[in-house]
Write a structure and sequence with these properties.
This protein is of the alpha+beta class. Helix content is 59%, strand content 26%.
Length: 138
C-alpha cells in the first residue's frame, strides 16, 4: 500500500508541475533573438510593405479576421493612417532592440516591445504547424 501511495504522489506532483515547467519568460537578448520575435518582426515588415494581404502568411486566421474588422471599422483612410504610424516607427534591427520580454506558455506567447517611454506594444502569438504566427488574445 505504501509504495502505491508514493507512486500516486509522484504522478500527482508531475501533473501539477508540468504546466509551470512549460512556461518560460525570455528577456533582453534572449527575447530579441527568439522565434516569437522573428515572427513578430516578419509580420510587421510584411504589414508595412504589403498591407493585410502581405501580412496574411504571418497571422493566424483569427488575427486576419481581427485586422479585417479593424480595417472595415476605420475605413481605407483610417487603415492607411495606421500603416503610416507603423512606418514612422522603428523597423528591422532597431525594432528588434525594442523587444523587452516574451512569455511563452506552451503554444501561446505574449511579446512586449517598448515603442517609447510610456508606450508598450503587446502582441499575442500562437504556435501553428507552420511555426509562430501573430494571433489574438487567447
Amino acid at each position: 500500500m505504501q509504495p502505491m501511495i508514493r507512486v500516486f504522489a509522484i504522478l500527482l506532483a508531475a501533473v501539477l508541475l508540468l504546466p509551470a515547467a512549460y512556461a518560460q519568460t525570455l528577456t533582453g537578448a534572449q527575447a530579441q533573438k527568439s522565434p516569437q520575435a522573428d515572427a513578430f518582426l516578419a509580420y510587421e515588415k510584411a504589414l508595412i510593405a504589403g498591407g493585410l494581404d502581405g501580412a496574411r502568411p504571418y497571422m493566424t486566421a483569427a488575427k486576419v479576421d481581427d485586422l479585417q474588422g479593424m480595417a472595415k471599422a476605420f475605413g481605407d483612410d483610417g487603415f492607411k493612417q495606421f500603416l503610416d504610424r507603423m512606418r514612422s516607427g522603428a523597423q528591422g534591427e532597431a525594432r528588434r532592440k525594442q523587444i523587452e520580454k516574451v512569455e511563452v506558455k506552451g503554444d501561446q506567447a505574449v511579446l512586449e516591445a517598448r515603442d517609447g517611454p510610456h508606450t508598450l506594444t503587446v502582441q499575442y502569438l500562437a504556435k501553428t504547424g507552420d511555426g509562430w504566427k501573430v494571433s489574438v488574445r487567447p
